[in-house]
Amino acid sequence: MPTSRGFTVSNRVLLATFDKKWKRQRVSDGHVVYVATANHATLTAIVRGTRNQKLIFKKGQRIIVVGGTFHSPPHTRVFL
Questions:
Q1: Rounded distance between C-alpha atoms, residue 28 and residue 59, angstroms
Q2: Which of 25, 58, 53, 54 is closest to 41 using CA atoms?
Q3: Which residues contact 77 (CB under 8 A, 6 or more apart)?
Q4: 72: exposed, middle or buried (C-beta count within 10 Å: 0-12, 13-18, 19+)?
Q5: Are 31 and 64 a contacting pair, CB within 8 Å?
Q6: Residue 30 CB burial class (10 angstroms; 0-12, 13-18, ≥19)
Q7: Which residues does residue 54 pair with via DSSP β-bridges, in sequence order?
Q8: In a 3-state reduction of DSSP, which class is residue 76?
Q9: Is the dihedral of CA 6, 35, 75, 58 positive or negative?
Q10: Which of 38, 45, 49 is nearest to 70 (CA)?
């Protein structure tokens, strides 16, 4: 996946499910920011062209969604 300023960028996410350790911080003009409220916050993603993935983040990390593109910081990825 390409990176931009330390973030991984993907526009291939078809469906993303956040666990209860996430807080939606703000929504404006098609931008949504999710903040991990605890360590091991997970996002389960169905990604076009690959197997389903579970992404694991540390407390305080942010995922920025602009349109259908996900911008995420370094994380652990587990293929399901």
A1: 23
A2: 58
A3: 53, 54, 55, 56
A4: buried
A5: yes
A6: exposed
A7: 44, 78
A8: strand
A9: positive
A10: 45
Q: Are 34 and 49 in contact (CB under 8 A)?
A: no
pLDDT in tens, 28-53: 887 899 999 999 999 999 888 888 99
Percent of the chain with pLDDT over 70: 91
Q: What is the pTM (predicted TM-score) of this model?
A: 0.80
Record the tokens describing residue 38, joined without a space.
């605890």
Cα–Cα distance between 18 and 44 in angstroms, integer? 7
Closest CA to 34 of 63, 71, 2: 63
Domain boundaries defined on the chain? 3-79
Closest CA to 36 of 52, 25, 47: 25
